[in-house]
Amino acid sequence: QTFTFSAVNSQGSDSQVVTVNVAAATAPAFTGGAGPYSTTAGVEVAFTVTASGTAPTLALQTQTASSGYSFTPATGAFTYTPPAGDVGTQTFTFTAANAAGTVTQITSVVVSEVPTAPDAPASVWASATNAAGFTAAWSASAGATSYRLDVGTNETFSAGGGSVNLMSNAGFESGDSTSWTKFETEYAVATTDPQEGTYHVAITASGTRDLMQPVSITGDGVTEYEVSFWYKKPASGNCRIWATWASGGQVSGDNLTPDAYLPVASDWTKMTYYVVPQSGANTLNFEVRTYSGATVSWDNFFVGAAGGGSTPSYVSGYSNRTVSGTSESVTGLASESTYYFRVRAVNDVGTSGDSSVASVTTSDSGPSPQTITFPAIATQIETNVLELSATASSGLPVGFAVGAGPAIADGTTLTFSGTGTVSVVASQAGDGSWQAAPEVTNTFNVLAATITNQFLVWVEVDQEQDPADEDFAWDADMDGDGLTTWEEFLANTDPADPVSVLTVEGNPVQESAIDEIQFSFPASPDRFYQLAYSTSLFSSATLTNLGWGTPGGVMTFTNEIPGIWYGRIRVLLTDPD
Question: To which H or E segment does residue 522 belong?
Fold first, then answer.
């Protein structure tokens, strides 16, 4: 643009032309903060939203989070501390706008639950008992990564003696903080809700607050010690054990400075850790830490030999024995003797309390052990009649029973009453010369006859593969694309090609007053297609029949819904109507 200026007086006049180059505004585009991000309930996640273009204005338009978020448009700084109710995927929709237009960015944050220590196994039992041992088994505990097994010769796992706690004033029964080297501000000895006795410690922390007592331990490098306490934390907020060795250390055992915080506990909950101190003098700074915003009660701290402070009495090798699964063979026992065992569940957060105590009596040395050989059973069709076959090392006949699933066992004949997963248990009870054999379970799948035949023909004829090849079994994923052969069959994609997937593509079109997108995807003539769509991730989807695939192999549909919507393609083998 040009601007002409003039100047005039009695002596004459003059003019000047000024040129101003006006550039078009550059459209905004997001350059940061796209995510996705992840965090844990109660733990802050922070990121910065940025956009290019001519002076874009940032804004947080919508969000699915309930609370705990903050956005500063001027800097793009965003923080989010999700409450427990926000577990799942939360989305935040940001806009960047200027004179050239407005763009949108949806950022997702995956919120995980606060990890918790597992519960003790609900049930414990013994099997495969013989003269020299047995198999200890237990039910799985949700969230457990391993287990700890104790086996002893009495129900209390001790050889007598009183409880010896190496700590002083461990339950604050002096009514004050005597013997506690760290008793930081906001901790208070209270009588409102002790776990045991008269007193406990309570705190509502406005900052990080430590509670610590140094404990002297003379170790032998072998004996296991219990480090435990009781706590109560009915609401959100963080706390945890944070114990360190001022001198000496531990040979093995649990981590006393874990990354994870203690879970919410509306009732008094005991946390127990086990360590084997080094031989000689050791000093453990037994510390717990309460963080800002947490309200916690603490009580009855303990450091002493494992088993409540009494002299431990365990079968050699079976004190706090680490087990990765839910059973462990116990060997080297005396015949015709009674043993007791219990289990604890462990994960990164901590260790559960003890399970109930189970007992088992070893047999005399008369009957010999036996085993069962029960070959694996392949996937079946529901119309099959299967003859079961298994052998016992004793030569005694093997019996069969249906453990679970739509099947009926009649002697050695197995028939099916439907489709699903079937478990068949082989057993041999033994006799005067042979012990009962450990049961052996075979688990396999039963498929519908009609669909199974169609699937097998597809594998052999359409895909030119061997249906008997386990790489192309219905639940296999030969090409590693995350889809089983059965799912590839439904989508009619190549199970041997990771690039062959059902992909939906879209192109903008203008067929009415609003902008529309025409979508297309590969469609087979013998597959029926549906579109499930919704304008929100949190509302029910609407189903639209797109119909059977066409010989041309491509099906199209046009989006006529203004704004944001979500959809997916469903593939069926039959017309749902």
Answer: strand 516-522
